[in-house]
Amino acid sequence: MSEFEYTSAAAPIYTRLADELCLLIGNGQLRPGERLPSVRRLSRQKKVSATTAIAALRSLETRGLVEARPQSGYFVRARGAQSEEPAMTRPPAAAKTVGVDNLMVRMIDAALNPDIAPLGTAAPDPAWFPVRRLQRIIASTVRRHPELLVTCCPYYAGLDTLRHQVARHYAALGCVVAQDEVVITNGCTEALNLALNAVAAPGDTIAIESPCYYGFLQIIEKRGLKALEIATHPRDGLSVDALQNALVSRAGRSVKACLVSPNFSNPMGATMPEGEKRRLVALCEQHGIALIEDDVYADLQHNGPRPLSAKAFDRSGNVMLCSSFTKTLAPGARVGWIFGGRYAEDIRLRKFALSGATPAILQEALAEMLRTGGYERHMLKLRRGYAAQVARMAAAVSEYFPAGTRITQPAGGFVIWLELPGKIDTLALFEKAIVEGVNFAPGPLFSASGRYGNYLRLNCGRMWTPGIERALMRLGQLVKAELAAA
Amino acid sequence: MSEFEYTSAAAPIYTRLADELCLLIGNGQLRPGERLPSVRRLSRQKKVSATTAIAALRSLETRGLVEARPQSGYFVRARGAQSEEPAMTRPPAAAKTVGVDNLMVRMIDAALNPDIAPLGTAAPDPAWFPVRRLQRIIASTVRRHPELLVTCCPYYAGLDTLRHQVARHYAALGCVVAQDEVVITNGCTEALNLALNAVAAPGDTIAIESPCYYGFLQIIEKRGLKALEIATHPRDGLSVDALQNALVSRAGRSVKACLVSPNFSNPMGATMPEGEKRRLVALCEQHGIALIEDDVYADLQHNGPRPLSAKAFDRSGNVMLCSSFTKTLAPGARVGWIFGGRYAEDIRLRKFALSGATPAILQEALAEMLRTGGYERHMLKLRRGYAAQVARMAAAVSEYFPAGTRITQPAGGFVIWLELPGKIDTLALFEKAIVEGVNFAPGPLFSASGRYGNYLRLNCGRMWTPGIERALMRLGQLVKAELAAA
Predict the structure, then answer these.
(1) What number of other Cβ atoms are within 10 A of residue B232's Cβ?
(2) What is the pLDDT of residues A200-254, one digit of tens each?
(3) Domain B129-376: which CATH class?
(4) Which CATH number fits domain A13-76: 1.10.10.10, 3.90.660.20, 3.90.550.10, 3.20.20.150?
(5) pLDDT tens digits, residue range B252-265?
(6) Is residue B195 within 8 Å of B322, Cβ to Cβ?
(7) Best mutation site among B190, B354, B378 for testing chain A: the one with the most A CBs within 10 Å?
(8) Does A327 sit within 8 Å of B334, measured CB to CB?
């Protein structure tokens, strides 16, 4: 028995079979238009009754994932007009100061309320993670290394064991960094703060994707920086052409860094093609601005090999890569890292001045997890699970939301980004949805200029339950009502 | 058997008896000039042989703590001219930019070298701490609260359990804060960053004690702030008169906050009298500058009741108190807190943007430690231990260092601050001492203006061993040699 399953073992057999098929659709093994196995074949292969097989296929049909064709069986549904992707974004040309505090706090507070469906913050379901293994490894680390609890630790750059394991993990991904370049941090958020501190002073401008994670906007605001939003494609990510144009414009002159998530960005789930990553690295180097890479979702591809990080193309040390275990292995551990490149020494000192050190006992436990291969085994399952969830949520949105709703098709991660039809205001929608017990992230959270009023982000990280389905249905009804009223 | 002892159980009986007496001298139960128990009484009370009692008393004599008077027995030595305290400091009137990176790194790196006596960083001996209890509590917390490992936690201000316990701890000390005002941080260092971020922007000036902890100078430097050093008394701490004068001077106009350690400051170990704390709180309020209180050593009084924090006199929310468990309970946990006063809401958001959250599992374990009373029991022993160590180190300095060396007499904490006679340069001394296997903190580390060239700080937090004694002897010889060469 594996330590976790993406579907509860208590679910009916037909639901578990449907989930399995859903996963194949989600990770691309079953493509749009392709025929699903027949009832007979399914029941033989999976050792279930024909009734169960039929119930599974009907459930997929209800979710909008497959369609029945007379005399032919079930086929993966092509994504119709309804599931089209949103268009390339067109943010303003000027840098903006930022302020999204209040809305963010309300969305995060709602995540604490068990009566509100958790589609707001990008928080994965606790059930994804290898809890028992983490418990065992932490307990054994506490037993074997009590000194880590009581040493006023001079290892402010992090424990060598974890720095080594993290460097090794990336080396296997074609991204070679020296162990000395690695600084262990309190999550990716602290890593991003360190990177920004190293290269930008208050008043300076940071080029970002538009839309981008609201946490980036928070950091930028609290540091007194300005954000310059760059046009971004929902599938291919940051437009390097748009960045290039911006850098030679008036607003581009005060840009000190470009902060990007090249792999499975948040909220769009976009992934920059390799050639564009290479161009981005070269462009930043050429303009003398630092490239800060948020890599926190990059291990979460739904299918195929893990995409390269932009840092893999860095030859001059101008790229600072920031990441953590928060979305992959141990959300509560708050252990992250930064590869500081040519800024590494400065960043080490800044880490000492910013928080002294990262708790050593958690570092050692996570190093052990990487050392013993537990990480890779866990990730194989997690990726499949997230892929299935994203496919299922997207299918439910297609089913319950009004025609004209556009949905991103991320190749990794666990959020989807919706463009609603008409002039629907997702801030007003948020107020109504919270009352109805549904949380989501309104579009304007992801923009320094208040854009994306008719967009929203859905967290697909939670296990599929009837409650989640009802919440999506309710949200879809609210959208339809707004649309009718407009 | 207690969970730790300030003297190793493996030490000879006479050493342990000497240590016990040393402790009584250190915490003031035996005062200068007072007669020690006779050999007969000691051997009866402590159930040791007369030989052992004599050996213990002779050992105290060797350490310079007691003197034998013919026909009368042993008496606690009065601190002679040699042990005089340093004078009030006289820092410059202008604010300074800061830069002590290189020296600090070398001192911290030396702390990693087991061949170098650990008198440099203010790192307590791991043996002081209740390791087994910490191990048990963390293991049981991991067992009972696995969800804390895998929840992408929305509790960015900290777990309510720990916020409650910390507020309760302070309420018992006459410092009443609402639980909502508490934000849990990654150590005191992060708390100080949050406080400074809330009230000061790059270019602003922060008033600080002179000398002050080099970590403060690091934070000030990395944030692009300036430091205005205020005259400080080695026993009574920051001069409120001097601060008042500075605030109305030219340099005082850009002061946005005053950052002070009113209780057992580092490096001086000074404690502000209650009236001065009250004046300081009022003065900051009156001038519209924030008071940031570093409270990290305040629980470590050597004797009598714990002094009040300045925050206890705060009526308007203008005082931000920052502290942690790093010097008291669990140096490796990196768990601290800030009471944000009127800035609390802003600080909560800044915490989210700075590091997301503090590891919840360690928060819960420490809350449990406070809840079950383990903290207070531990502290009773720790305070006695630190008191004895400080007394012992000061006695050894009196014995091995040249006449004219002045030593602070801290009433709490575990560092002492030495003023060396003549024109000895402690930066040059540091180079020689490291080669000879002795670490210490040179005076200029503690000043933004490079002052205190003939001062140094010694860490008394490590258990007394023959190795520590040899290191002090060697350092004393080096000082004498420098003096002779000058």
Answers:
(1) 26
(2) 999 999 999 999 999 999 999 999 999 999 999 999 999 999 999 999 998 889 9
(3) alpha beta
(4) 1.10.10.10
(5) 899 999 999 999 99
(6) yes
(7) B354
(8) no
